[in-house]
Design goal:
Helices cover 32% and strands 22% of the residues. It is α+β, with helices and mostly antiparallel strands and 219 residues long. Strands 1-2-3-7-6-5-4 form a seven-stranded antiparallel beta sheet. α3 crosses α6 and α4 packs across α6.
């Protein structure tokens, strides 16, 4: 009797905590946890980045699993695992995939990190670009193109089986039409996650990623 009572109390506490476990709404399909903007990507988004994500997605409810079926999705992003992989397997990408918590089949944002051997020249790319691309004085190279692609390179040496690579490349993509074309908002999100990755890797000082993303450079 005492054991049954303890289990009942424990279950009630879990339900009261809210959102830490998944349910299936009685249909046999496991539903993903609903996350706030500040909880996605292992809690790496600061206040400005979380606000930017809410604005881009037009919602305050997110998850890191595709649609409503958690069993077919990638595992949630982990800073610790990303750092380990970038050190040991630098050719592999480490990805945080963010969905609107509305059963959407397409990601709102797909953010990935990989070790890199070089980076584009900011001044040259800015001079040669068209009006569809924005460049930011962030890291070694940072650009936002149209309403889809956002890239950021920063100094952070990693060494694996293929040798040493001096940079980390962060990429962020969205399915067309998923977000509004706010280049600075997208860069704010990518910079926040990149800062956390750099800190986890122990290269925050040399990465030189700002706490606040400045305005885009003049074309």
């Amino acid at each position: 009797m005492r054991k049954r009572l303890l289990r009942a109390v424990s279950g009630a506490l879990l339900l009261a905590a809210g959102g830490t476990a998944c349910g299936n709404d009685g249909d046999g399909v496991e539903k993903p946890d609903v996350l706030s903007a500040s909880q996605v990507c292992d809690g790496t988004l600061d206040k400005a980045a979380a606000t930017a994500l809410e604005s881009l997605g037009g919602t305050q409810r997110f998850n890191e699993f595709q649609g409503t079926d958690k069993s077919v999705a990638l595992s949630p992003f982990s800073l610790e695992l990303a750092a380990k992989t970038l050190r040991a397997k630098p050719t592999e990408k480490n990805t945080c995939v963010i969905y609107k918590a509305d059963g959407s089949d397409f990601p709102l944002l797909d953010i990935s990190f990989s070790a890199w051997h070089s980076h584009p020249d900011l001044a040259e790319e800015n001079k040669a670009s068209d009006s569809n691309e924005m460049f930011f004085p962030v890291g070694l190279f940072a650009s936002a193109s149209g309403d889809q692609g956002t890239s950021l390179y920063f100094a952070c040496p990693t060494e694996g089986p293929g040798g040493k690579k001096p940079y980390v490349k962060a990429d962020m993509y969205s399915a067309r039409g998923q977000v509004n074309p706010d280049g600075k908002g997208r860069m704010t999100i990518l910079n926040a996650v990149s800062r956390a990755v750099a800190e986890e890797l122990g290269c925050a000082a040399e990465a030189k990623l700002p706490a606040e993303v400045p305005d885009a450079l003049p074309g």
